Amino acid sequence: MKDGVELTRDMAGSKYRFKKDGKRHILIINEATKEDIGMYHVFTNGGESKAELEVEGHNECCFRGNTCSHATRTHKLTIDDVKPSDAGDYTFVPDGYALSLSAKLNFLEIKIDYVPRQDPPKIHLDTSGTSSKNVITVVAGNKLRLDVEISGEPAPTVCWMRGDKVVSEAEGRVRVETRKTLSSFVIEGAMKEDEGAYSLTVTNPAGEDKAELFVKIVGRWRVLTRSNGP
């Protein structure tokens, strides 16, 4: 009986099964839920026995008690750090009593995949010029410093090139200075030989961006000739 109501296998939608093993009588509850919580009694010719069933939470189940008319004991099964291998059928069989209680533990695993943020790289270059190439004019002998803001996540890789040659020097008259969000192209004392087409490419796993520009050197150059006589 459960809470004073007799249990039979013929009940509509019954989840109860009864098993006899010698002098032992076993009650099996298929897929126990919180609706099965209550006090269970079993009556035999030799007397009466009762036990209280508790079902707790999503990841913990326990069986409380086997109680006789003359004594009370509490039995509890607790599973810490529940793992998939803990799922299955559990049965409580008190010593000396022809009664058992069964419950099924189902393991529910929720998996969350973390995807790092990725933003395509971007070159923020503001130069004048109406042609397809940005033209930067520098007076011979002066210094050119072109600061270009860049963005992207993760931080993009920066590559400056003159034609098909990579400009990678960090020191010297012509050099590249790069920080996380800024890349600077520097020419100290511009010379006619510095004139030409340059490009900047930034890349990261999310994509690529490219900008092209043309450095034009203007001014006068003295041509020195050696005379043959005084």
Blueprint of the fold:
Elements: E1 16-21, E2 24-29, E3 38-44, E4 47-54, E5 62-67, E6 72-73, E7 88-92, E8 101-105, E9 119-124, E10 134-139, E11 144-153, E12 157-162, E13 165-167, E14 174-178, E15 182-187, E16 196-204, E17 207-218
Parallel strand pairs: 10-17
Antiparallel strand pairs: 1-2, 3-4, 4-5, 5-6, 7-8, 9-11, 11-15, 12-13, 12-16, 14-15, 16-17
Organism: Takifugu bimaculatus
Keywords: Repeat
GO cellular component, one term: M band
At the first level of CATH, the class of the largest domain is: Mainly Beta
Q: Under the CATH scheme, which architecture of the largest domain would be assigned?
A: Sandwich
**Spatial shape:** rod-shaped
Q: How many H/I helical runs?
A: 0
Percent of residues in beta strands:
over 45%
Strand order of the largest sheet: 10-17-16-12-13
Protein name: Ig-like domain-containing protein
Keywords: Repeat
GO cellular component, one term: M band
Organism: Takifugu bimaculatus
